[in-house]
Amino acid sequence: QALSLPIVVIVHGNQDNNAKATVLWDNAFSEIDRVPFVVAERVPWEKMCDTLNLKFMAEVQTTKGLLKEHYFFLAQKIFNDHSASFEDFQTRSVSWAQFNKEILPGRGFTFWQWFDGVLDLTKRCLKSYWSDRLIVGFISKQYVCKLLSTQPDGTFLLRFSDSELGGVTIAHVIRGQDGSSQVENIQPFSAKDLSIRSLGDRIRDLGQLRNLYPSTPKDQAFGSHYNSEWLAAG
């Protein structure tokens, strides 16, 4: 007899997401000489970060992996803790329940279901944007407000939606005549939306967007992603 790679049998497509979570956890965290089917219930967060990074790069097929600030955001999400420091999270361990059993606060999905939605969207529609580092992606709405509130009118950045599975949204600052600022988040775009009209062309269409944070003119940042037919016409 020989141990195979982990296999999960499903009877319906809606079980696919949970099956992928089981296989990922087993592949990443089981010991080589373990008793069959015995897998750790908790793993160090640092090890989870490595696993998520490898999964992201392999799935999206990019050489641009997750950054320290991305890990910090993901830790805040999975542990539901916005007061701990980056170093605090490095000493914690994460459970299978936190990974793919417990529903995220105020949402209808687990951490893995959310992350897998981001993976699928990036793989299908955002690979080149991510590889060009045009998408911050893993960042909270609160931190986006902090970054953009001091910026000139029309400064924007892109983040993965917290409220929808597989969505990317554009946050931009609007500065009033009195100098006050307001940060608005455009309704998230899904893979279906972006298959109809690309992200680059949508950004070009939105006149209120001027500079990609911190200060790159949008045509300079996204020009290579605009539809070639439009460029020829222009």
Automatic annotation (TrEMBL):
GO cellular component: cytoplasm; nucleus
Top-rank taxon: Eukaryota
Membrane-traversing stretches: none
Gene Ontology BP annotations: cell surface receptor signaling pathway
Record keywords: Activator, Cytoplasm, DNA-binding, Nucleus, Phosphoprotein, SH2 domain, Transcription, Transcription regulation
Location of this chain's protein in the cell: Cytoplasm; Nucleus
GO MF terms held by the record: DNA binding; DNA-binding transcription factor activity
Residue ranges constituting the SH2 domain according to the UniProt record: 114-224
PANTHER family in alphabetical order: SIGNAL TRANSDUCER AND ACTIVATOR OF TRANSCRIPTION
Similarity comment: Belongs to the transcription factor STAT family.
Name of protein: STAT6 protein
Organism: Ramphastos sulfuratus
High-level lineage: Eukaryota, Metazoa, Chordata, Craniata, Vertebrata
